[in-house]
Amino acid sequence: MDREAAARRPLFRMFNDVPGRYDIMNRILTLGQDERWRKKAVKLCLDEDPERVLDICTGTADLALRIAKMADKPIEITASDFSQPMLDVAAEKAQKLNGRKVDFVLADTADLPFENNHFNVSTIGFAFRNLTYKNKFAGQYLSEILRTLKPGGIFIIAESSQPKNPILKLGFRVYLKVWVQWLGGLLSGHSRAYRYLAVSALNYYSPEEVGKLLEENGFTGFQHIPMLGGSAAIYSVRKPRK
Ligand SMILES: C[S@@+](CC[C@H](N)C(=O)[O-])C[C@H]1O[C@@H](n2cnc3c(N)ncnc32)[C@H](O)[C@@H]1O
Q1: CB neighbours of 139 closer than 8 A, spacing ≥ 6?
Q2: Cys-Cys with 127: which of 57, 160, 168, 215 at CB 3.0–4.6 Å?
Q3: Residue ranges of the domains in the chain?
Q4: How confident is the model at residue 2 (pLDDT cuts 50, 70, 90)?
Q5: Are 62 and 21 in contact (CB under 8 A)?
Q6: 54 lines ligand 1 (CB under 6 A)
Q7: Strand runs (DSSP E) across 47-86, as ranges?
Q8: What pLDDT digit, counting tens, does each position of 6-63 carry?
Q9: Is 9 in the pocket of ligand 1 (CB under 6 A)?
Q10: Which residue owns the Cα nearest ligand 1 atom 13?
């Protein structure tokens, strides 16, 4: 990957700062729910009986490693991220995989080093917001994800969402401002990163807007599974078969 180009990407520096406590912070801030949401995304992925899977923005690889563990046969799993410190943590965790394998690739999602029509499934855990919220490269990221998927292949997204119920919505706002922004900043020592997380989640797109964004960028067949009262969601779309 061209390091200079990556360094110009929004959020690059922020993600290089957080890997040390990233997993434990996820568990604390979601009270372990993040693992339940990833599990649901993994189930959808494995329902496809894929040969090749790409986990984009893999971070510390919780999603990619779970795919490897839950699969009933070996699958070719590639996990990419533009942060080497995140991938270092991921590679260490992957050593406990017991025979299963994940290939880690340092790559900016704007320029994926994979062939056209290569993967049956692409997944992304809690990073679609990073790629699309106030991000001027969103179109480029989505076009790379589409290019590398096989026709008919599925793109599965686990992401925070917006509850529709007004009481749940208020509770979600308080949770983000107090629990995620304040407590996350305090415990992690990275107040800027957790402020970004809270503010971007607070203002992120509704499921309808996510569907529109994906369909405007060439995907089809938007599906939405709300989780925990709509505070999170599993979305999926496909690459058209033509
Ligand atoms: C919130 S973390 C999510 C990590 C992981 N997928 C999970 O489920 O916990 C976001 C990850 O996306 C990566 N990232 C953000 N923008 C990226 C880009 N343009 N290209 C590649 N990786 C990116 C960051 O380095 C970080 O590891």
Answers
A1: 217
A2: 57
A3: 3-14+33-162+206-238
A4: low
A5: no
A6: no
A7: 52-56, 76-81
A8: 665 657 777 777 777 778 888 888 888 999 999 999 999 999 999 999 999 999 999 9
A9: yes
A10: 57
Closest CA to 232 of 134, 129, 155: 129
Tokens of 127: 């990073």
Residues 242 and 151 sit within 8 Å (Cβ to Cβ)? yes
Distance 172 CA to ligand 1 centre (A): 23
How remote is the CA of residue 166 from the centroid of ligand 1, in Å? 30
Whether the pLDDT of residue 167 is over 90: the answer is yes
φ/ψ of residue 235, rounded to 5: -110, 150
Structure tokens at 97: 């995989």
* 11 CB within 6 A, ligand 1: yes
Mean pLDDT of 183-212: 90
- Sole residue written with tokens 């017991």: 98
pLDDT in tens, 202-239: 999 999 999 999 999 999 999 999 999 999 999 999 99
Q: How far is the CA of 170 from the centre of ligand 1 (A)?
A: 28
CATH topology for 3-14+33-162+206-238 is Rossmann fold (3.40.50)
Beta bridge partners, 104, equal 79
